[in-house]
Design a protein that fits this description.
The protein has 253 residues and is α+β, with helices and mostly antiparallel strands. Helix content is 26%, strand content 27%. The chain has seven helices and 14 strands. Helix 5 packs parallel to helix 6 (172-183).
Length: 253
């Protein structure tokens, strides 16, 4: 199964930049979207169906034009789980999961901590999300949690670790959390195959950051340990330019 994850920073804007043609050419079995910033009613679902994704599931934030996640699939999932059942998370449309046989795929959009209030929200979310996943793994051990984690794990995941050490996304507490998350039984699929620096998935729109590759690796395909032997490859698809993020890919046998 070829799984792609993409923070599109507005699905309607991405469509206007050629997203559908890119999706058809890339041809994943499943694509996880984050920051869709739209409701299902605002979209022409025929565009996705015509691209081969008859099964598309949208989980929007209550706030219009904000957040939201989706999963598009070529084959029908056995089950779709909207949200986590944790009310404050689900108001913002940050989690959706699709089950395919013994494999479960989640699209996750973890909050950013752009100011003090949102940082507190993010830290609470991270703690509660870890507890939720610990329980989920009992019944769904084969998990792929794709999405925008809004955290760079190590210094090679950010272009300037020194000047960004006090910026949300690279704070010690955030880095510690994502490290601990992996220690509970998840593999950072990209780093499993690629240990090289200068591989990023988000660039600021400012100061020509993308052309200068001054980026952050915020997007992950986290794969639970029981799937390790089924991992085939993981890539950052940096040629796609429909957003300030680029997609990532993980392939599971």
């Amino acid at each position: 199964m070829k799984i792609v994850s993409y923070n599109v920073n507005g699905i309607r804007a991405a469509i206007n930049k050629g997203f559908i043609d890119w999706l058809t050419a890339t041809n994943p079995d499943v694509i996880c979207l984050q920051e869709i910033k739209a409701t299902e009613e605002q979209l022409d679902l025929f565009l996705f169906e015509n691209a081969g994704y008859k099964y598309n599931y949208w989980y929007s934030a209550q706030k219009k034009g904000y957040s939201g996640v989706a999963i598009l699939s070529k084959t029908e999932p056995d089950h779709i789980e909207y949200g986590t059942g944790i009310e404050y998370m689900d108001f913002e449309g940050r989690n959706i999961r699709a089950d395919f046989g013994d494999l479960s795929v989640m699209s996750l959009y973890l909050p950013s901590g752009t100011n003090l209030d949102r940082l507190d929200f993010k830290l609470t979310y991270m703690e509660d999300f870890q507890t939720y996943i610990n329980k989920l793994k009992v019944n769904y051990p084969n998990l792929v949690i794709c999405g925008d984690y809004n955290i760079c794990h190590t210094e090679i995941d950010i272009h300037d670790p020194v000047r960004n050490k006090n910026v949300s996304g690279f704070l010690p507490v955030e880095r510690e959390w994502i490290g601990n998350f992996m220690d509970t039984g998840f593999i950072d699929s990209f780093r499993y195959f690629n240990k090289e620096p200068h591989n990023y998935s988000w660039w600021s729109y400012r100061a020509n950051s993308r052309n200068n590759n001054k980026g952050w690796r915020l997007d992950y395909g986290m794969v639970s340990k029981p799937l390790e032997e089924r991992l085939k490859r993981a890539l950052i698809l940096s040629e796609a330019k429909h957003s300030d993020h680029c997609p990532i890919l993980v392939e599971i046998e």
